[in-house]
Amino acid sequence: MLGVQVFVSPMSLSLSLSASSSPSLHLSVSPSPALRLSLSVALHASTTLSLVLSVSGGLASVPAQRLARPGAGRGRASRRGRAGLKGPGRRTARSEPRLRCGRIWIPDREAEAEAETREDLLWAEEAVGDSLQCAHSCGEALLPTSICQLGSALRTAPAAPSPNPRNLGMLPVTEHLLYLLGLEKTAFRLYAVSALVLSLLFFLCRLLIQLLRFSWRCYITCRRLSCFPQPPRRNWLLGHLGMYLPNETGLQDEKKVLDNMHHVILVWIGPILPLLVLVHPDYIKPVVGASAAIAPKDDLFYGFLKPWLGDGLLLSKGEKWSRHRRLLTPAFHFDILKPYMKIFNQCTDIMHAKWRRLAEGPVVSLDMFEHISLMTLDTLQKCVFSHNSNCQEKMSDYISAIIELSALVVQRQYRVHHHIDLIYYLTADGRRFRQACDTVHRFTTEVIQERRRALHQQGAEAWLKGKQGKTLDFIDVLLLAKDEDGKELSDEDIRAEADTFMFEGHDTTSSGLSWVLFNLAKYPEYQEKCREEIREVMRGRELEELEWDDLTQLPFTTMCIKESLRQFPPVTLVSRRCTEDIKLPDGRVIPKGIICLVSIYGTHHNPTVWPDSKVYNPYRFDPDNPQQRSPLAYVPFSAGPRNCIGQSFAMAEMRVAVALTLLRFRLSVDRTRKVRRKPELILRTENGIWLNVEPLPPRA
């Protein structure tokens, strides 16, 4: 056996010769990886010749439109030579991208390869014919007939059917889309458009599944909430939206609902957002008494404050809230609050001195909200930062920024399109909000960093000795605070708590104080009784200054303050989102995920809890005649684990301000200016609270 193998790129040629009794010739040609031709010739003893030609390749899978690709197979030499067995002609470089019909056509490499394979098959047919013609010249008369028949069969063989692109995994709509877009059909574009369409269908199916899940959850929630009463809706689309507006009319409408529904009220914000409003102490208890993990504050009503206040006590959740609450509690201990009494007296004196200057005649009408708000800001800035900005006389950038931030947050609540951050921060209000936040944060950060540098340089003991005889402010307490593991609060945490204290402390206290003075001006008999009580405490003193122990000597003044906070709570409601099902006293269940609104205003005006709730009656809180009421019937500072941590601070400041004001001035209501309530972040009025202020002669 003699064997010879020759490999010529890109053609593989295998030749085997046999010199046995039956000589044979085996020829194998592979012009391309997709095509193989085999030829076997055997001469038997009977002098007969047998010839077998086999062709194998992937032509049946080549799409017709690919074989007809313009430019496929071009660039070859003129048809390959027909003399002898020659391999495929040298291929020229593949055609470069060229401009066709106004577009750049990039050749399809796969289509070119398949077209070349087809040409190689034709070359093989020609090569076999040429070889057998040589054999015919040697006297083999049978060979040309056989080869001609074979060549004819190859030429007349029907072409493989062109596969439909739809059978190749492409969608029927793809060709139509390419036609509409005016694009030429290519394999790449067909597959790309199919992929895009399939992706779109997948996205729509996923969206549909989520919508179905959401609809099912809404259906289940509606069924579970069907046991709670609700007022008549405005319509199916708006629900109760727009029925209880943040103004005097809205509060009056709410009072009408409370006259008929005394425990829990279901309201709908639009067609899909249910809110449960709790207006009875027994129904408030399971929610406010739950842990911060089960009933955290809801971001829907507090989220707008996040860029300003950060993760302070008002907005933080979970373990972070618990840790900060433990660290901040000592800052409001009585021993820390007592030195603040001097600041309360000083800031109230500054406000009264301004009132006397403004009094051109015996009586002057002043807006209590405006003046008291500046006084509380002045107080807090001194208690928190030990900083005297003199803001009651001249507005500072920091104080202006706080006032502006409070107003911008309220405005954003009532503009639905501003609820989207991307839209809001492109508006003028959004840019002002960012600038005001930067101003507030810059001031707070500078104070904190300056104190921390001094603390590290001097050491804790030396630093505390330097504070002897001075008031230890809020920042000092936070800088010294450490948890059970000895970890301190970061500068960012301290800033968030300081900003939160400034926000919650000035607005709520100014609202409470303004309404107390309004009620005392409205009921002169109570005002006079408070004045007599204060004069009795101050009898024999040269300085008109209250001390910590004097606060317990003002029981009636305290009763008047509490009744005013009941009738006009600074914060009208707080929100909680239930992370678990919460069972109510009557067996009904608040479903998981529902937002509960603890209506402080509604509870304080519930006729089943407070008879004659519209009447201002300080004797409801007479310590000598206690009434059988639930501790949760009166919650101006909220209740439970997340109640107001600074309520002792606020009550002390209000008692000092009320006592000194009544000691020096007589108040009466300005009848020319009607007071109309306006619940926002706090309970304000539409046009302020204007009172006539009459200076009293000095004490003898």
Protein traits:
single chain; 23 helices; 4-stranded mixed sheet; 46% helix; disordered N terminus; 5-stranded antiparallel sheet; 700 residues; alpha+beta
Radius of gyration: 45 Å
Give the low-confidence spans.
Answer: 1-15, 17-21, 31-35, 43-107, 138-148
Coarse shape: globular
Task: Kindly state the number of beta strands.
Answer: 18
Strand order of the largest sheet: 1-2-3-4-5
Alpha-beta content class: alpha+beta
Q: What is the helix content?
A: 40-55%
Beta-strand percentage range? 5-15%
Average pLDDT for all residues:
80
Q: How many alpha or pi helices? A: 23
Largest sheet: 5 strands, antiparallel
Q: What is the terminal separation in angstroms?
A: 142 Å
Topology:
Layout: E1 2-8, E2 11-18, E3 24-32, E4 35-43, E5 49-57, H1 64-67, E6 98-100, E7 103-105, H2 109-137, H3 142-156, H4 172-181, H5 187-225, H6 248-258, E8 264-269, E9 273-278, H7 281-288, H8 299-302, H9 306-309, H10 318-328, H11 334-337, H12 340-358, E10 364-367, H13 368-385, H14 397-413, H15 421-424, H16 428-458, H17 460-466, H18 474-480, H19 491-522, H20 524-538, H21 555-567, E11 573-577, E12 582-583, E13 589-590, E14 595-599, H22 600-604, H23 647-664, E15 665-669, E16 677-679, E17 683-685, E18 690-695
Parallel strand pairs: 9-14
Antiparallel strand pairs: 1-2, 2-3, 3-4, 4-5, 6-7, 8-9, 10-18, 11-14, 12-13, 15-18, 16-17
Helix pairs in contact: 2-3, 4-5, 12-13, 12-23, 13-19, 14-16, 16-17, 16-19, 19-21, 19-23, 20-23
